[in-house]
Amino acid sequence: MAATWHLLLCYLLVFSIWFRVDIYAETNSQDAAVLRSLKDQWGNTPPSWDKSDDPCAAWEGIICSDSRITSLGLSTMGLTGKMTGDIGGLSELVSLDLSYNPGLTGPLSPQLGDLQKLTILVLVGCSFTNSIPSELGNLSELTFLALNSNKLSGKIPSSLGKLSKLYWLDLADNQLSGKIPVSSSLSQGLDQLKQAKHFHFNKNQLSGEIPSEIFSGDMSLIHVLLDGNKLEGNIPSTVGSVQTLEALRLDRNSLKGSVPSNLNNLTNIIELNLAHNMLSGALPNLTGLNSLNYVDLSYNSFQKSEAPDWFSTLQSLTTLIIEYGPLEGSMPSETFSLPQIQQVKLGNNAFGNELDVSGNISPQLQLIDLENNDISSVTFGSEYNATLMLIGNPVCSASLNTVFCRIQQLGKPYSTSLTNCGDKTCSNNKKLNPQSCACAYPYEGNLFFRAPTFRDVSNASLFQSLEKSLWTKLGLSPGSVSLQNPFFNDDDYLQLYLQLFPSNGKHFNRSEVQRIGFSLSNQIYKPPPEFGPYYFLALQYDFGDGRGLSRGAIAGITTGCAFLLLVLAALGAYALRQKRRAEQAISLSKPFASWASSAKDSGGAPQLKGARWFSYDELKKCTNNFSEFNLIGSGGYGKVYRGMLSKNGQVVAIKRSERGSMQGGLEFKTEIELLSRVHHKNLVGLVGFCFEQGEQILVYEFMANGTLRESLSGKLGYLDPEYYMTQQLTEKSDVYSFGVVMLELIIAKQPIEKGKYIVREVRIAMDKNDETHYGLKERIDPAIRNTPNLTGFPRFLELAMQCVEESAADRPTMSEIVKALETILQNDGLNTNSTSASSSTSEFGNGKDCRTHPYNDSLPRKDGSESNAFDYSVGYAIQAKVEPK
């Protein structure tokens, strides 16, 4: 019998002895463990999280159903920290909102893609960085995705095209680059989002051409916002086929060429903004766009022409802007008679002759701006009372004192009136409630409207309608809303300052702030239609409990206490030095606070059984600063160093994880707990660990020639199918996982379901003695495939298949597996008495057949003809994660 086949059976025999480990302690549910881990990793969590061990019963921001967490909403809580992979363990989560927490930094966790039931993901106004994880494309139930106003970079992942139920996609105000992804022969793209109504990609660094595939007649797009990018090329003619479009913003790019002639097919369009590009050819024909309110074609290179006919026919037009345009000839006076027209801004064109404003002027008209044209005279009528600006025209050369030839101030921007409050003022960052004139702490921030249908920021009735809609739809007291300083910013968005006041008392509570924040971040609140699509960026809120203080308040407190702190530090310096090691031990235990809390529910916290905490400085010292001289192995997980403990001189192997391979805190704790329980004469023992200064380090007993753990993997991530119904792990669950290991040893890391099919196919081929078919060339692990005289292989296949039976009752027990393996070995002439396991494993440990370094888990070569091919088939790192996949 070939040595490789013997090694395979020896491995599995020994593995079957130690595999039966109690990996599931009686603790709170998985959701509770995840929440406790997140609490350890985040700062400024709500105070209620410190007062109870039961998230569903008492934690603010948590909504549960049948004891499972279905909603996590922590908008505007002042959270700090990073998003780790632990969050992927909330398998029943439907809604996740962490908006308006600028203290949340770092990359988005790819484990977000594990939240298979998630329908709402809102992370607006945080400080997340790096690229958008492609794993978000796995969220098949997602309908609302808002990642705007972060610091995300890289490309838009094409995998988002798999989100077939998505209707809201907002990636605006980030640093995203590259092309807009569309479908190819290899992947889906955003053109597959047929149900999407909102593409908000504005204020990024997207480049390349706008793909024609992004527009089609079977899409449902309402708002397409691509402004403020680096897009090039022509506007695709397919845009005219999306007749559902209401707002199209392509301004502030580098688009060129002619505007598609079929643009007037967009009969539902309300806002069209093509300004600040390099478009050429004729002005677009907008005839028939009877819903159009706002159009801006400024700063392009259109060919010279007279005013088009649609200047006088678009009955819904409120705002007409073509500055630095190609217009010449006479300005049509019919434009000023359009029933909804409010502003006409046509400065820096070449209009000449006489300007006639003597006809039937619309009462809505507030501004006519024709600065720097060639107008020589003006005729007024009695009905005209709007602002007229003609500076830079010949008509002003002889009459500089005329009102329209001087710089004029437009109407004062609207602000909510506080006249009823008289001269009353507030202190300590409190503000006056315009409804009650009481001093309180408002929920406040900046509100941005990306495509309003008007330009008049002095229109009181319009902004009062916004105030009313806010207090009505957000469930506030009438009049408890303040709007201040509306203006059009450099992005051509309407920006204003919003304050919302509590109905009772001086503060909102946390639940109220979360409710309001979610209503604004998740677009539940809908403004009056004139304001169009919006987004909100909240400021940190002062809850009055010492958290969420403003920077000014923090600075004041810090200054006031500085002297006292210095005195206390000087007096306590000696005592602090004496207690330093004790405090280090306490700080090391903080990441594992969930173990202590679980004791209340399980009758005792899980025991580490001898594994101890090490400080990072201690391990750094015993490895001579992790020097290359002490490096004894490396792989995908990181590097392994030889070290000597200073206390007792014990030689240890120190496995230091690389940054890119780190687990979440919960996963790391699970692995430590698992490894601390495994005790066998053929297995290396866990001495301790370090979880400090961003490091994840495991300390093992040192074995010069390697251990079984370095070559055999327990794929604990594959769980018993019955677990999904019972939520219980049993001995038969371990058998199922063990069977997965057996299959993977045979089929070289194929997926489990495919592995079952392959094994059945191999078994049938062997029964037929079909050696050609039996080869199965690319399917079976080459180390097994190329081994002659596999006498016990058919029985081994049978055993593997029995272990992964769907029903637990049909699987063998662990003791039966051990007997079966011993029988296979005995039939092949291998001694399996009480010492057989240790001797055979020791033989491997001595390095007679294993040619990789004992502490290397790298994958050297995948060629089945090489002698180390067997190492490749089993050289995965142990996964301590025990949640379903």
TrEMBL record:
The keyword rRNA processing does not apply. ATP binds at K655. Residues 831-842 have a biased composition (Low complexity). Residues 846-865 have a biased composition (Basic and acidic residues). One of its GO terms (cellular component) is membrane. Residues 1-25 form the signal peptide. Residues 626-885 form the Protein kinase domain. PANTHER family: LEUCINE-RICH REPEAT PROTEIN KINASE FAMILY PROTEIN, RECEPTOR-LIKE PROTEIN 55. This is non-specific serine/threonine protein kinase. It comes from Handroanthus impetiginosus.
